[in-house]
Amino acid sequence: MEMAATLGPAADYRGIVASSASGCVRLVDTLLAHIEKLEPEHRCFEHIDAEAVRARARWLDERRDALGHLPLYGMPVGVKDIIDVAGLRTSNGLPTALATTASEDAAVVRDLQAQGAIIVGKTVSTELAFLHPARTRNPRGTDFTPGGSSAGSAAGVAAGMVAAAVGTQTGGSVTRPASFCGVHAVKTTSGLIDRTGVLSQSPTLDTVGFLACDAEALAAIMEGLTPLQPPGGDVPGRIGLLAGGMVDRAPDYVREALHRIERHCADRVSRVVLDPLFDRCVPVRQRINMFELRYQFEHFMTGYGNHLSDTLKAGYREGEGVTVEDYFAAIREGADIRRYVNGLLEQFDYLLLPSALGEPPKGLESTGDSLYNAPWSLLGNPTVTLPLCAGPNGMPFGLQLVGRHFSERALIAAGAALSARFAEAL
């Protein structure tokens, strides 16, 4: 089933910016009006300083000759509200009364602006980037979850409010909302993007990622932030389609989509039955996450416990039950699984699996299951979400391409090249 398009004016930001000498101002005026119209329904933003956005656009227009070559020139970007933007509140998904105003930009925000981006505002995050659902609604269908924790970032891109947005992932918080909202995304290699100025839930697992209206925008972001990384080359010749264990838990319509790709792309795609060791990714990641969350969030629990959800408190209590011995055993087990997956990536250029268990669940009581995201948060591999599919309700689900560590630019290029071929099969 084909997915309905909902992307708005931000998807055409390049054309608007290039349309006149005041193209950046024209773009932000268009977007601010679009946001004002849709925000009451979709609830993607925590805070926008419209005058600061317009001032940034004017500044870029005045320097078009000097800065117009930058890869992110004029790109409107949302920033997840666990990431500092100077002069704006950082709420971390908590009540406004607990927000603080950032005195300086997070490293990733500074780097985006240095490459010409326009920071439109702070996008809604779930509470402390954990599991308790946020107020954001999915633009593809407001009765369905947008996912989490980067809910506002994914929905803002899907609604055409921004061309791209910064998210973070500890479990599945970039890939899953991208899949549910039908947008492109890259979950970067652990440690690639500086996390200074970003709330930390689990230092071992926390990773910065990006969601975007198209693969070209993702490629521009990685070009701007990782200019020394080799760009993509030829279309990869060997794709390993993961099967067995947890992957076989996908619903029939997801598995049928993968089977069609396997049949149509038999010259490139080969099935790989996973070793049972791979299924250990989920409990191992969970143990590491909860142990580290217990220490990272102790000050929130002691200072603001009355304001926190039962969901977060339950996670904190789970972390209290993880011993130091269990934690380091999980770290060692994660290293064993990483060696196994690195071996697969010596046999194949990329690995392929769904981005989520299927289309987003109906209802707003949860953010969905991170089953297919947890392994890559644990193992640190980069992943790209390709928004190619739709389920029986017409809601999106993505396919996920996994690459070797620090191969983001090649991975994005491979995803863009393979998308057309996969779409033929679907």
From TrEMBL:
InterPro entries named among the record's database cross-references: Amidase, Amidase_dom, AS_sf
Taxonomic superkingdom: Bacteria
GO molecular function: catalytic activity
Amidase domain segment(s): 27-223, 308-411
One Pfam family linked to the record: Amidase
PANTHER family: GLUTAMYL-TRNA(GLN) AMIDOTRANSFERASE SUBUNIT A, MITOCHONDRIAL, TRANSAMIDASE
Family to which the UniProt record says this protein belongs: Belongs to the amidase family.
UniProt-recorded name of the protein: Amidase
Gene source species: Sediminicurvatus halobius
The organism's taxonomic lineage, starting at the top: Bacteria, Pseudomonadati, Pseudomonadota, Gammaproteobacteria, Chromatiales
